[in-house]
Every structure is written in structure tokens, then in C-alpha cells.
Amino acid sequence: MTVRCFVDTNVLIYLHDRSAARKRALTRHSLRSIRRHGELVVSPQVMTEFYGLAAARFPLAPRDDIRDFLRDLLPACRTEGAGELMGTAWRIEDRFRFDWWNCLLVAAAVAAECRLLVTEAIDDGTEVERTTIVNPFTTDIETVFAALKDR
Fold first, then answer.
1. Consecutive 10-residue averages of pLDDT for the chain (151 residues)
2. With left for phi above 0 and alpha for psi between -120 and 50, is residue 58 left, alpha or beta?
3. How far apart are CA 84 and CA 79, in angstroms?
């Protein structure tokens, strides 16, 4: 069974942030684990946020490098129709009271049938439908994969 893992923008940003060595190393570890045990998934929202944040946060990085990174992520990009995504996001907002952008993030992960959502923006362990939030900076994702295998 392949475990789909939706990865948030903030995690991908740390992959490139040399000023946050610990988070950068943990992000690399998490992405390697996902590659080994699952399938990486992102949304158009994650990709557009990444481009804007990376361009602003790393102004010396060549834009072509940022674009190449995103081109490499394109096969992982899943999208749901706007109406379905909004409806799911509203249900999540009503139930969990997350901020709107996190509602859209979780809705995209749920729509893509992801078992895990890797982010630091929502409390670790929170479950929304069949998607579980994993904070890669407080929880070792290898432990999560091991627990999923045991089920």
C-alpha cells in the first residue's frame, strides 16, 4: 500500500533554508522517508505559495533554480475542482476552526486521498477525515510509517 503524503509549503521552504539547519535536516529526512515509503503530493496552492515565498525569502537565488524545483514537483501536483475544494474547506473550517489557508490546505490533502499531511502549521496528530497531520519537526515520520504498517 502506498501512503500518500501531502507536503505543505513551509516544509518545502525549509528544504532550501540554510539559516535553519535543524529544520532543513529534518525536512530532508522526512522527504527521503516519503520517497521510500509513500508518494509525495502537493497542490497548486502549495506550488504558487512556494514560488512567492522562495523568491522573497531567498532573493539571491536564481529564479530559474526556483522554477526548476517547481517543475520537478509538477508530477506530484494534484488538484480538485474549485467547487469541491471550497465545499470541503468550508466543512473543515466549520468543524476545526483552522485559518482559511489551512482549511484549503487540508481540503486539498483530503481530496487527494492523502493519509498524511506534513506541516508545522497545524497541531501534530490532528485527524481530519482519513488524513493525519504530522509535524516533521516534532515527530519522526519513520515512526509514523512504521505505525501505519502495523495497522
1. 92 96 97 95 96 96 96 92 92 96 96 97 96 97 91 72
2. beta
3. 10
pTM, entire model: 0.94
Q: Which of 86, 72, 77 is nearest to 45 (CA)?
A: 77
Q: How deeply is 19 buried, as exposed, middle or buried, from its count of CB atoms within 10 A (0-12, 13-18, 19+)?
A: exposed
Q: Residue 82 has what pLDDT?
A: 86
In DSSP terms, 39 is beta-bridged to 4
Taking the alpha carbons at both ends of the chain, their separation in whole angstroms is 12
Nearest Cα to Cα of residue 130 among 115, 142, 145: 115
Neighbours of 67 (CB within 10 A): 13
Antiparallel, parallel or unpaired: β 3-7 and 38-41: parallel
Contact between 70 and 51 under an 8 Å Cβ cutoff? The reply is yes
Q: Tell me the pairing of strands 127-128 and 131-134.
A: antiparallel
